[in-house]
Amino acid sequence: MQQFLTTALNGLTQGMIFAAFALALVLIWRSTRIVNFAQAPMAMITVYIALVIIDAGYSYWLGFAAALLSGLLLGAVVERVAVRPVEDKPHINAVILTLGLFIVIHALAAVIFGSRYRSFPAPFGLSGFQLGDMNIALTGFGVFSILAVLAVMLLLVLLFRFTNVGLMMRASAFNQEVARLLGVRVTRMLTQGWALAAMVGSLSGLLIAGGNLVHPAYMDSVVVFGFVAAVLGGLDSPIGAVVGGLILGISLSFVSGYIGSEVVALAALVILMVVLLVRPGGLFSHAPARRV
């Protein structure tokens, strides 16, 4: 019973981390119709900015806020400088560009911050709770991660369903020409989409780094699992991103705990294939409009 509960709670925390990264991918997809494979190194850079501030003697929360703000700025800069020249080209051009940015940002981080492993602090405890004779493997930082991801999911749902900005961002992503005719400032909406997605990506980087060691490649594996989580839930659904992250995190935790960590990647592929065979658009996808 203890092992089952520990495995499940570890999967819950891990799934929320996958969900945080998946939310960033969903946000950039909903607002620009682009999958940003450079999301992980962009988040990693902002985590290093937070680490520099914390190592200088300032509070964790100041570094946390600085990382989120720098992610917001970095996303806007990347969109304006690198992505905008190819925005009117086929979307595959922008996707290939993000793969190039992945390599470039990695190299810059290694040059600026070095490649050695560095410890990143956590604002809350990293030990589980004691309930009688049973140790609950859910840390204070794990609870913070769960609440943070749920809050972001709720805010994104409200943004895209109930605000004019969210509706204009979606209109700009689906059909730029029609959106312009309706008075939407498309370029501004695309910039805002990249900026907000980068800020959510920074949050995922901070949640992954808390209480762990960071280095320029520490988020690379999360790209794969976060992308799988986003596809499982449906790339157009913030709720789906969280559900997909939970399904993936809990499933992989049980696979690792009861079968072996060496088959975790294979299990993720099997889960993705099964879901896409049953529901190709993801669990929370909407039925496409019928063309006549």
Automatic annotation (TrEMBL):
The chain crosses the membrane at residues 12-29, 36-54, 60-82, 94-114, 134-160, 193-211, 265-284. The keyword Membrane applies. This is Branched-chain amino acid ABC transporter permease. The lineage of its organism: Bacteria, Bacillati, Actinomycetota, Actinomycetes, Pseudonocardiales. It is found in: Cell membrane. The keyword Transmembrane applies. Belongs to the binding-protein-dependent transport system permease family. LivHM subfamily. It is a multi-pass membrane protein. It comes from the Bacteria. It comes from Haloechinothrix salitolerans. Its main location: membrane. Keywords: Amino-acid transport, Cell membrane, Membrane, Transmembrane, Transmembrane helix, Transport.
